[in-house]
Fold these 4 entries.
Entry 1:
Amino acid sequence: MNNQENTNEQQWKLLVLLLKEIAIDKHGTGWQTHLADKTKFAQSNISRMFGLKYTPSLKNYLIIAKALDVNFFFESKDSDTDLNQCFERAMEALGRRPDKLPKN
């Protein structure tokens, strides 16, 4: 996999993990069931997508974002808002913040 493909792979995973953070925050342990009910997607598909087993289409990503009442906007990386904190947790989960990973 070349560098551009790897970057693209990491970017869609980041977007999915951001939605997962929001879903868990809003709906707790029943977040997958809630999304399945709101989107009419099978719960197993929700599980596979949020388990990063496959790349969701933009259309499906937006359907899920709408079901979670997510707004999209841009802000400075330096901002200390809840959104940026959520973003940083997702980046850490992907291993994109090596300085914050546990040391061996």
Entry 2:
Amino acid sequence: MAEGRRFLAVLLLAAASMTSAQAADDAVLDARARALARELRCLVCRNETLAESSAALAQDLRAELRRLLAEGRSDAEVRAFFSERYGEVVHYRPPLQRSTAALWFGPALLLAAGLLVLGLTLRRRQRLPAEAFEPEADDAEEASR
């Protein structure tokens, strides 16, 4: 009888340790899934990540993402799967490629062009004589009326 109790206790401890190991694995899997969901764009609400979106499609994509991770695929393989299936638009931060170079460097180039135009305009104004900034006689008469 005592051996039966010991066997039952050992069996219960083994089941509990397996459950805690599975829970730990699930926690790691959930953390990876959440991290990847923050990197992928919701295809319905394009200004939100999969993690933020409450759209039905986003819920389906999160389930698909978790399934792929549970199968043992790496993060890079999951990103590649989503890219192949939905295109590069699925990346919330698109990778630097020839086709996305304008997204990465466009704002800096526009800022540099604006600063260049501003500098040239200010330099041109410095070269003008002081009389160029005085109101014309006709303008002064109209203002006094």
Entry 3:
Amino acid sequence: MNNYFKVLPIVFALALTSCAKDQKADQLIVDEEATVLNEPVVVDTQTEMIKAAQSSPLTNVALSEAQFDFGKIKKGDQKEHVYEVTNTGENPLIISQVKPGCGCTVPDYTREPILPGQKGKITLKFDSSGFDGLVNKQAEVYANVDKAPIVISFTADIQP
């Protein structure tokens, strides 16, 4: 029993030190020198997203349309629209991220570089389940263009 009281403080001390939190595991380290061509770049602030998008040589882009109207749709319908993008510049267009305004909209986009003169796509998929009446949703497109983000949007009149 006497040995038990001698060992108990040592076991307690080991338990406390073995549960110590590693502060480095919770820290986000962003390598600003990294260039990612085929993977979306995940960063915390809008300024960092713009810097990441513009890390490649800048180019120009033309959208088939910046705004689309679904018109009247039934509540619960899931709709999608494809926005066509054309690289009108001299360098490859790299879309690094498409960030919708809310969780009701899911983006998909051309992930490989779009060569000068070529076209790519940005698709926005909308779930109208949680809405009634007129809605206006938008998404920010981060790419290696001078004025990032590019804002695309859609409207819908959701009927019961």
Entry 4:
Amino acid sequence: MSLPAPGWTAQEVVAHLRSIGTEENRRGMARFGINTATALGVGNVDLRPLARKLKRNHERSLALWDSGIREARLIAFTGEPKEITIEECRRWAGDFDSWEVVDTVSDLFVDTPFWRELIEEFAADEREFVRRTAFAMLAWAAVHLKKEPDATFLPYLRLIDAHAGDERNFVRKAVNWALRQIGKRSVTLHAPALALAQKFAVSSDKTRRWVGKDAAKELSDAKTLERLAARKI
């Protein structure tokens, strides 16, 4: 198999993945809570460089997703966000069965024109990985959507408040992630995010308390405050 090329088809990508996967890697993934049912055993150290080499391609992305293979689905985020439809995003979300796939594909979803609609919809969904998607998207949006005004993110603190008591592991961690990223985005958002984290930290609900204590610790950290102060200058 030749080295990865930008214009590779989905079939060529999958063939390459099959050629470099190992059983040892599959066993190691399971220790990190990764669903290995469809895994070929290719680690992120190999997947990331491959993804960087590939050009964005919508049709290839859909084919990679439909393969059902764990590694191919992680590469599927190289699709074109302006071409993927909201129905395709919903279909993919219904297939989610692993936190790492959620977190990778969410980075594609936040670049779509309808990302805010998806966050609201997915947060209301009772399925664990679909709800996680809402908050993974919110975390990525806070980091990557530099041109989005801070005012866009302020109302999402209410959404975080509404779901901070979801005790399911993959949801609570994503809620915590979203709260921290919103709070670190700017001086303007830091104060309300920290206030919400501190409210959670003294909650009688153990899940909300965990979310709050962990977020408040990072948002109060000296390095976080220094970075925010530097951005303000």
